[in-house]
Structures are given as structure tokens and as C-alpha cells.
Amino acid sequence: YGRDALDVVTARLAGVPIFLTSRRNVRHWDPDRRVLWSERLRNRWTDCVLANCSAAATVCADAEGFPRDRIRVIYNGVKLGLRLPNPGLRRALRMGPADLLVGNVANLKHVKGHSILIRAFRRVVDELPHAHLVICGEGEEGPALERLCRELALTEHVFFLGLRHDLGSIYRGLDLYVHSSRAEGLPNAVREAMA
What we know:
By secondary structure, the protein is α/β, with parallel strands linked by helices. It is 36% helix and 15% strand. It is built from 8 helices and 7 strands, in the order αβαβαβαβαβαβαβα. It has helices at residues 6-13, 37-45, 54-64, 88-92, 114-127, 142-151, 167-173, 188-194, and strands spanning 20-23, 48-51, 71-73, 100-105, 131-136, 158-162, 176-177. The strands form 2 sheets. A 4-stranded parallel β-sheet has the order 6-5-4-7, sandwiched between helices. α2 links the parallel β1 and β2. The longest helix has 14 residues, at 114-127. The two termini are 27 Å apart.
């Protein structure tokens, strides 16, 4: 879902017969709900909107005026299976069994709220010196977040693991998962951590 109608216009010119668009957020960039003309054009040609949660569907209907009877909610899916704890992460980070391991998985961008999490984690470490935070993801905010950790004297408590393809083993190594997003629909990472 972009904020312009180029995809729908291009598809219309190509003769595509049915238009589905998606909503996976609650318009965090638009607190005044100023729907653009391009969004209105897209909505006029859209047959059905697929939202990943009820909140995103409600915002689409209320803010954009899209008919509720043409919005369908399809929740993000997570493959379930046997989930046993994974001590490998703790070993790799040289952590003992008494250490508290908190984790976060998200792209390193402003909307994900990593700076809020890191500032709050400074207070956690003040109370629980054995607490550690792992952050999985990559993005433009990475250098600023690492700098913030240095400023808050958290470099020995916060580990940036970068982009990972073994998230199941990461989640299974955590004691606690925290998602600090400023505004989102239903993030995959929350469902994955719950699974």
C-alpha cells in the first residue's frame, strides 16, 4: 500500500479486471487523517481492501471512507510447530542462566520505536543489572541506535544481531519479547513471538 495511485492506474490501463489493495497500519503518518486525492482515486477503483487486523480495517473505513462491506480482515499467519527453548543464543552471547534476556525483532526504522525501547531499557538495567536486550533487524536507524546505546552506557547490555533468518531460534532463546512500535496494525513479529 503506497500513498499514490500509480499501481491501480497502471493495472487499470493494462486491463486488470479486479483490484485488491491492503492496509497493514493505522495511518501513523497521518494523525489528522488527511486522505490524499491519489488515495481517493485508488479507493474508487479498488474492489476490496484486505486488512491485517480490525484496527487497520476500521481506520480504512473511518479515515478513507472506504465501504466497510468491501473490507476483509485476514490476519497474518504463523506456522506453528514444536517450540523448545534454545540455549544456543545465550551461549553465543556468553550469558549465564540467571541473566534476563529480552528481545525485539523489527526493521530499524523510526516507526518501530527502538529509541523508546533503548531509553526504557536503561531504567531496566538500573534495576536489574543482569538484564540484556537483543535487537534483530536492519535499517537506516541502526547507527543512531548504536550511538544511543553508547551514550546511555548500554553497550554491554544491548546486542544488535542484524538481519537474521533463524528467528525461531532467537525467539526460543528469549525470556521476554518486547515490541516497541509507535504505530502498527498487527506485526508479524508479535505473532511469531507469541507462537
